[in-house]
Amino acid sequence: MRIVKDTLALSLLALCAFSFAAGNGGGKGQSESERARKLLLKTLERDRPQNVVAIILQRSPDCSDVMQRIQVQISKDGKMRQTVIYPLSMEGVETIDDGRQSATYLPDDKLTLIQESPRLMPNDTLTRMNLTTRNYGLSLAGTSVVAGKTATIVVATPHNRDMETRRYYIDADTGFLLQLETIGKSKEPKLAFKAQVVSYPSSIPSQTFSIDQAKSGKTLVFRRRSGIYDGNKDAQNLGFEPVFPDALPYGFSVQDAQINDNVQWRSVAVRITDGLIKGTVYQWPASSKNVKVREMPGTTMGESGGMKLVVAADVPESVRRRILEAFSDAARRGGNDGSQAFAGFIQSLELSLRQISLTHIELPAGILLITVSNSINEI
Amino acid sequence: MNCKSVQAYLSAYLDGELNGTERLDIRQHLHECSECQAEEQQLKVLKQMLRGLPTYTPSDDFEERLVKNVVQVQEQKRTSRFSLGLDWRFVAGFAATAALATFAMLQVTGRPGPDTANATVNDTLASEIGRDQMFIAGNDPLSGNRFAVPTTYANR
Description:
The complex is a heterodimer of chains A (379) and B (156). Chain A has a domain at 222-378: MucB/RseB, C-terminal domain (Phosphorylase Kinase, domain 1, 2-Layer Sandwich). Chain A is 20% helix and 38% strand. Chain A has 6 helices and 20 strands. In chain B, α1 (3-14) packs parallel to α3 (34-52). Residues 103-120 of chain B have low confidence and may be disordered. At the A-B interface, α2, β1, β2, β3 and β5 of A face α3 and α6 of B.
């Protein structure tokens, strides 16, 4: 058992540096990139200054040219209801997130999927902002009008040319993201997301976010995802050791690793981010005969060192391929460099100003146990 | 009228498509039921927003092009059916017989065909990744697909 105090010291140092920078950013002399960073931070805030009702267009995840049209209702405290209006094949697909659970109703299947709310995940806002400033140059590009609202344009230019530039159109008053474009090597802006109509009503009926509303058909309730470093029994019974590379390309960092406890597909989901983009690397043993792999849009797949790997992220295929290679190399070496990968993550961990205790323990199976708490704890 | 039937007719009610008796029944229920009132309010907002969207007028030659494309597709289908010089009814009959024979053989050997098995597990993988992506996108406006929605879920 080894307690790593230097990591904690580094984290606190990073926090102090961040707080100092943030504290100096409020005056007239605030730099453009600082203002851009603050606007991005505002979009990530979980509790909003107002309710939002909007109809948005977004690029279909299957990478087709079809734009989905979705009605979105978001309460001040972050509860959300989204209903697909277009295309016809998905009309009526509805997700209600009440902050604890998220229920998705699929009318064609007469099926409701219930899983934990994404709001239960740790708030990673500051970590992401630190990574963003490391991996992107932030600037402002004037204003534009989107859905009748004045939007301030924040341009995030990646330091690596293989990555795409991202242009965010943000309502500066509310922090609501009105439009997102990505610009790749072709230099043609590609629309990812655009609000068509937006209103900020003073109230939204509470029933809107109630998932108890009876829907006909079957309901599947999924167990809450468990973190692999919680020292829980699921991790010990996983049956394989997930891999973590020493370092990831394009400034990506490992954020978290969670267990998917599906009996047909026992796997680990490693969450990665470069600050702006979140991705997931799914891992499971190649010996799992139950699961055969096929290419899916927005994903890149491979097999290495007895592991099957799938990278899912909204980045160009070449970038996903490089990320896959990093994990494949680690799997081929048969090693697990989790401690190193997580050291980088811990350094950029979001720490509150409360007292924080952070320890990591290497278990015999090569599994790393990390404990972060808001008060001084013993191991 | 109960909530289920009122909510089924709510859109038609707001669009003025119901007869007098139906309208009265729904109005009375709405006076008494706060849940249906909330549903009505949401629907009103949605309809108002949809009315605010731009409308698109098809080009003058749209109908002509549509009919031409449909006819072309029909022609292609017909051509492909007869391209081998076979009567399609004979081909269909032969395929059905072959399928039945295969099914009978599988019953005897007791093993499913590999393709059938693959289809099920592939759907599982796609469904699970879709569900997980929806979860991870839930609180993330910056990544891209903030409002990820699965089209189907095969693992039942």
